[in-house]
Structure to design on (412 residues):
């Protein structure tokens, strides 16, 4: 019941946001003509998504970087060869499917063993190359400030989940909640974190 | 996966929490690579997750206010560490008349953190009473039973014993008769597993009376 009510407010928080990026024919043409700003945006935006995807499947940061670069290379080569995409809006799906192919080939070559441990993957390492160390340092500070500004209960929950990696069922038992409501709590913490992080951007 | 389904099933949160099956994970990735809203949502979640890890990995990072941390953490710990408590009590109980619990007993444990984490706390031990210690194991992970020793400042052994390893994140709870501490003063509790690969040391001051 509580979870259902929370989900209603969740929908309100999430859906009104507008997409930040539009992938259209002009964007793809700029990629094909190697426009530096578009290339930077492309590698940063999809670089983060690819890292997130690859990190749970590959055993080392080097493999993640290799797979990411291979994906970028294949996507750009294909776009140039075909002079675009039939449906420009499907650029994201195309990048994802190329990445799946790269992963599949890696698996077949026997390179895969176990997932990369999260704790050997500090946040600044997953950032694309275009982000300078100064920017990474500033972001770390903003992340830390945003976390510090969360209510203590939320910080404690996040610590249990992501640092101590406690069993989620045990957390639910302690908090007397169900798993779905645990997700709602994470969602709320995330919304507050985003708010604080974005506020830091405006400082 | 459609956007509405992703929102209504809290897909972003489940992805960050690692709760999705492989099939579901693939479907959600397919979606968020094409959906800037979900992509942004999942990246913020990831930034928060890695930020927590990075911040807490450094002891100096004050992510949690210390005073309230102790209050909030100790309460749920108590239930989780009942077994360790019993083991500790049985091992440390001095010879002589001993009672059996016949009614509920409320405990107010004093949290001990590894010696490097601050000043030694002071424990008031009433003569004939007991003190309860919640031993924070920090990031140490043990898979064998724990052994511990309590020594006075002069190095004299006051008590020792073994206990089951508490659940991850839970403390080791020790119930210690005040008589174990002969006199007021500084004591050190050393804790480790059979191999003593991760030896932890806790300093505290006992004040009898």
């Amino acid at each position: 019941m509580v979870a259902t009510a929370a989900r209603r407010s969740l929908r309100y928080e999430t859906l009104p946001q507008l997409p930040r990026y539009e992938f259209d024919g002009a964007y793809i043409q700029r990629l094909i003509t190697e426009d530096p700003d578009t290339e930077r945006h492309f590698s940063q935006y999809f670089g983060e998504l690819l890292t997130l995807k690859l990190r749970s499947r590959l055993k080392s940061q080097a493999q993640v970087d290799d797979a990411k670069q291979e994906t970028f290379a294949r996507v750009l080569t294909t776009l140039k060869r075909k002079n675009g995409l039939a449906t420009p809006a499907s650029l994201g799906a195309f990048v994802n499917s190329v990445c799946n192919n790269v992963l599949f080939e890696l698996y077949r070559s026997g390179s895969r063993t176990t997932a990369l441990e999260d704790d050997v993957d500090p946040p600044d390492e997953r950032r694309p190359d275009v982000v300078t160390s100064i920017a990474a340092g500033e972001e770390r500070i903003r992340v830390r400030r945003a976390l510090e500004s969360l209510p203590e209960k939320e910080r404690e929950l996040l610590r249990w989940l992501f640092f101590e990696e406690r069993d989620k069922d045990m957390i639910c038992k302690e908090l007397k909640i169900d798993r779905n409501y645990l997700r709602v709590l994470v969602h709320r913490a995330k919304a507050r974190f985003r708010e604080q992080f974005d506020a830091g951007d405006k400082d | 996966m459609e956007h509405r389904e992703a929102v209504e099933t809290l897909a972003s949160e489940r992805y960050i929490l690692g709760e999705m099956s492989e099939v579901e994970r693939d479907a959600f990735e397919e979606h968020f690579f094409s959906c800037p809203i979900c992509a942004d949502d999942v990246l913020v979640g990831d930034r928060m997750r890695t930020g927590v890890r990075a911040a807490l990995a450094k002891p100096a990072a004050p992510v949690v206010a210390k005073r309230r941390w102790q209050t909030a953490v100790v309460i749920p710990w108590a239930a989780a560490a009942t077994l360790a408590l019993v083991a500790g009590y049985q091992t440390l109980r001095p010879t002589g008349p001993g009672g059996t619990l016949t009614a509920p007993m409320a405990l107010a444990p004093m949290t001990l953190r590894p010696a490097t984490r601050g000043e030694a706390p002071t424990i008031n031990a009433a003569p004939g009473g007991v003190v309860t210690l919640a031993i924070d194991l920090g990031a140490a992970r043990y898979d064998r039973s724990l052994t511990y020793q309590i020594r006075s400042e002069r190095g004299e052994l006051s008590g020792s014993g073994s206990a089951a390893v508490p659940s991850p994140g839970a403390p080791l709870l020790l119930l210690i008769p005040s008589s174990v501490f002969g006199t007021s003063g500084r004591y050190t509790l050393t804790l480790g597993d059979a191999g003593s690969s991760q030896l932890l040391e806790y300093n505290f001051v006992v004040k009898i009376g």
The first helix of chain B runs from residue 3 to 8. Residues 18 and 25 of chain B are 9 Å apart (CA to CA). Chain B touches chain A through 53 residues (CB under 8 Å).
